Amino acid sequence: MSPIASVCVYCASSMGTDPRYGEAADAVGTLLARSGIRLVYGGGTVGLMGRVANAAMAAGGEVVGVIPRGLFEREVEHRGITELIEVTSMHERKQLMFDFADAFVALPGGLGTLEELAEVTTWAQLGIHAKPIAVLDLLGFWRPLLDWIDRAMAMGLIREKHRGLIVPVASVEELLPALTAYRAEPTPKFLDLDET
C-alpha cells in the first residue's frame, strides 16, 4: 500500500440529531489536516460536509471539494476551501472524488452517503481498485449495514473474501491506522456474475 496522501470523506449534508456526529466530523477534518493528508469531499458548506471541511481548513489542511452545479441550492458551495471543482453531474462528481483519493471514509450520512459507499465498495469487489475503505461506526451507526453484509454472506450472496472490503472503526483515532494497515485481497477485474 502506497502512502495515503488524500482521503475522500463521504458524509451527510445535514447535521443529524446527535451533536457527536458534528464533533466527529470536526475531529476527522482536523486529523487529516494535521497528518498532511488532503481532504476530498462533496464541496458543500452545510451539515457534516461543511464541518469536516471547515475543521480541515482551520487546522491548515488542503481541501478539495467537488460539486455539481445543479445542487447549489441544496448543498451551498464552499468558497473558503483550497479548491472547489464544479462539475455537471453526480457521475462526474463521484468519478473525480474517486480519482483524487487514495482511501475512502464514510461518516454518518443518508442515502447519498450510502450510495457513494456502496459504489466504491462494489468497484473494489470488481477489482477496479484496491484502495482502503472505512466507516466510522460512531455510536453503532453503520452496524445495521455491517450486519446486512454478514447476513448476505451467510446466504451465499457475498463472498467471504469480500467481507473485509469495508473496515469499521469505532473512533477517529483508529481511522488512519486502519487505512494504512488495509490490504485488499487481489480480485480478478470484472468478476463473473456468479462470483459476487
What's the gist of this structure?
With 196 residues, this protein is of the alpha/beta class.
Structure commentary:
Helix content is 37%, strand content 16%. It is built from 6 helices and 7 strands. A 7-stranded parallel β-sheet has the order 4-3-2-1-5-6-7, with helices on both faces. Helix 1 packs parallel to helix 2. The chain is globular, with a radius of gyration of 16 Å. The model has no long low-confidence stretch (mean pLDDT 90).
Q: Numbering strands along the chain, what is their spatial order in the largest sheet? A: 4-3-2-1-5-6-7
Element order: H for helix, E for strand: EHEHEEHEHEHEH
Largest sheet: 7 strands, parallel
Taken from the alpha-carbon principal axes, the silhouette is globular
> What's the helical proportion of residues?
25-40%
Low-confidence stretches: none
Determine the number of helices (DSSP H or I, runs of at least 4 residues). 6
Q: From the alpha-carbon coordinates, what is the Rg to the nearest angstrom?
A: 16 Å
- For the residues shown, what is the average pLDDT? 90
End-to-end CA span: 24 Å
Q: Please give the number of β-strands.
A: 7
Beta strand %:
15-25%
Task: Specify the structural class.
Answer: alpha/beta
Topology:
Layout lengths: L5 E5 L8 H16 L3 E4 L5 H12 L4 E6 L14 E5 L2 H11 L2 E4 L4 H15 L7 E4 L6 H12 L12 E3 L5 H7 L15
Helix pairs in contact: 1-2
Features:
single chain; 196 residues; alpha/beta; seven-stranded parallel beta sheet; 16% strand
